[in-house]
Amino acid sequence: MELDGEKGKELEVEQITELDVEKAKELIDQKLAEEEEEEKVAFSGSSSFASSAASAERSGQPPQSPPHHQSPRRLYVQAAGGGLRQPGIPPGGAGHGAPAVPVPQPCPVLPQEGPVEPEDFLRAAVQGKIRVIEKFLADGGPPDTCDEFHRTALHRSSLEGHMDILQKLLDNGATVDFRDRLDSTAVHWACRGGHLEAVKLLQDRGADLNMKDKLLSTPLHVATRTGHLDIVEHLIHCGVDINSPDREGDTALHDATRLSRYKIIKMLILHGADMMARNLAGKTPTDLVQQWQVDTRQALETKEQPQEEAEVPA
């Protein structure tokens, strides 16, 4: 009889857990729908501004400022002719008494002269100066040259998304999974910068997509925290460990839930992320979703409290 009682309790706990997960999924869907609705409203607002600006241009009227006072550099429509002019140029253009505005010419790319110092090589990887990179490598400079944090040109160009430099470094023997002092690889940095094409190139050259840094964070953790949905989707389709825990026991789903990244949450769940995985604090993603409701309730109560105090007669 005691055994039957224990089985009954276990079954009851499982049913409660499943109910919590289903409620959490419903709340996630609700939040995602709200976010998508907000995006539609924002897009509608920008579209109406573009439409009104186009109408103003056709009618010869000055365009209105866009919503939220995010006005771009203002261009004015000439009363006669309907052409556009910039502030400071009188109607009729520069040919009517105003000095002509010189058109800036692009600076010529000069060949790199003299040896390239390691500091300049690493700086060029950030700035996208391929000529400096080529000169350094042509002179026999090691592609894995790094700074005091063990960050190489490959790390830096991955963060910035300079594909030509990445290609050049890899073609010249750069170590694709070179670790910096935090054990981050170029893939971690490409995920942090949000450059999917860089991730794909590094992957093609043999990068480990499940590599962990010193915090035991995988590229999936990094892409989730920085909110790069396209990279998250790519990593999942490549078969990375979706439930891999970091040093705190958090999976990517913990991170996405804590940061309210609803689209990423939905994608992770659809591809098998465990909503009942416990971190070192004993919290599951389901617990964190339920905390949204508590936080929302507390925020509403805090907002209503001053109003109630104001209504109390003196």
From TrEMBL:
Its main location: nucleus. Residues 80-96 have a biased composition (Gly residues). Residues 30-113 are annotated as: Disordered. GO terms for cellular component: cytoplasm; nucleus. The keyword Repeat applies. SMART domains: ANK (SM00248). Residues 42-56 have a biased composition (Low complexity). The keyword Ligase does not apply. One of its GO terms (molecular function) is RNA polymerase II-specific DNA-binding transcription factor binding. ANK repeats lie at residues 149-181, 182-214, 215-247, 248-280. Keywords: ANK repeat, Nucleus, Repeat. One of its GO terms (biological process) is regulation of transcription by RNA polymerase II. It holds the Pfam family Ank_2. It is found in: Nucleus. PANTHER family: ANKYRIN REPEAT DOMAIN-CONTAINING PROTEIN 2, ANKYRIN REPEAT, PH AND SEC7 DOMAIN CONTAINING PROTEIN SECG-RELATED. This is Ankyrin repeat domain 2. It comes from Coturnix japonica. The gene is ANKRD2.
